[in-house]
Structures are given as C-alpha cells and as structure tokens.
Amino acid sequence: MAGVRQFDERDALDKALALFWRQGYSNTTMQDLAAATGVQRGSLYNAYGDKETLFLRVFGVYREKYVGQMRDALDDADLRTALGRFFGFVIKSMTTGVPTRGCLSSKTALGTEELDDPLREAIRDLLDDIEAALYDRLTRADAQGRLTMDARDAARMIVTMTRGLVVIERVYQDDKHMRRMADLLIGQLVKAE
Question: What is the mean pLDDT of each run of 10 residues along the chain (193 residues)?
Fold first, then answer.
C-alpha cells in the first residue's frame, strides 16, 4: 500500500539509535542505516527524508526516555542520594556495552565538524532538560539551605561535570574513577548534615 510503512518503526528507530551511538552521527551513512535496520534505503528516505531528519527523530525518542529515567533517578527524599543516583544513571548510560558506548549527545556534538542548527538545537534542548530536572530537584524543600551555591549554578555545574565525565570515560574507561569524581562534586555542592 502506498504511504503505509512496511517496517516496524519502533524496531527500526531502536536499531538506528544503536548505530548512531556506536558509530557517531558523522560516520553513519544512509546505507549503514539501511543495513542495520533491515529497511531498504529508499524506504528510509521516503519515511524520513534524509539522515539528519532520521537522527532527529531517533534523538527525540532517546531524549524523552533518557530524561524520564534521569528524573526517576533524581526522585529520592535524600538530596545526596538523589544526586548519587543521578550520577549512577549517567555513568551507567555511558559505560554500557562492549566497547562502552559513551555519550550520544557529546559524541554527536564533538564528532560533527559542522554542527547544523537542528542538531545543535536538539542537543541544547537535551542539556536544558537535564539542567531543568536538576534544578527542580535542587529547589525541593529538603534541599533548602543544603547547597553551597545557588541552585541554578549548581544545576549548571552538574551538567558541565557530566560532559567532563564523557572524556574521563573515554580516557580511563573506569566507572569507579568516574564515580569518585561525581562523589567529590556532590561533596562540594551539598553541605554535610
């Protein structure tokens, strides 16, 4: 039937996400995507138009899931525990797989020579979502008076730290080292009780 997709879109998007994450946006071609998804290249073009549009669709699905899981990790009554769970989630996300997959947003931002505005905006939106979730948690009643700095600044510092952890993961490939860096930051941001 004309206009009806002849493939399982969710499965294709999952496979495209895995490929983009493994190879990076710049190193992935439509032919690679066709091979990975099992969908004819022409069908991918008909469904999504081009690689960027397909990536943005995949990234949107990823972003929604990632932010939801991150908010779940932050949902703890104790501030230190919430931040520890947040960093545990971030570290696990980067260190999953063999070889480890790293960070999709950072890999895309840094691995793309000329970052087009739609890609830049998609990554910025994800980082803004992370900052907003952190800010929401850092402004809860139980966090009042416990931070060593303004909640907005603390949220931005944590987001920046997650980007630094991307480099630490690539270089050290040691989640314990990453966890230690996260714990040090939490100790600097949250006053002892």
Answer: 71 96 94 96 93 97 97 97 98 88 90 87 97 98 96 98 94 94 98 87
Question: pTM (2 decimals)?
Answer: 0.92
Q: Are the beta carbons of 161 and 103 closer than 8 angstroms? A: no
Residue spans of the domains in the chain: they are 52-189
CA angle 132, 129, 71 (to 5 degrees): 75
Cα separations in angstroms, 92 against 65, 121, 139: 15, 25, 25
CA distance 34 to 84: 39
Q: For the chain, what is the largest distance between any 2 Cα atoms, rounded to a whole number of angstroms?
A: 65
Q: How many angstroms separate the first and last alpha carbons of the chain?
A: 65
Residue 142 half-sphere exposure toward CB, CA atoms < 13 A: 11
Which of the following CATH numbers is that of domain 52-189: 3.30.40.10, 1.50.10.10, 1.10.357.10, 3.40.50.1820? 1.10.357.10
The SS3 call for residue 35 is helix
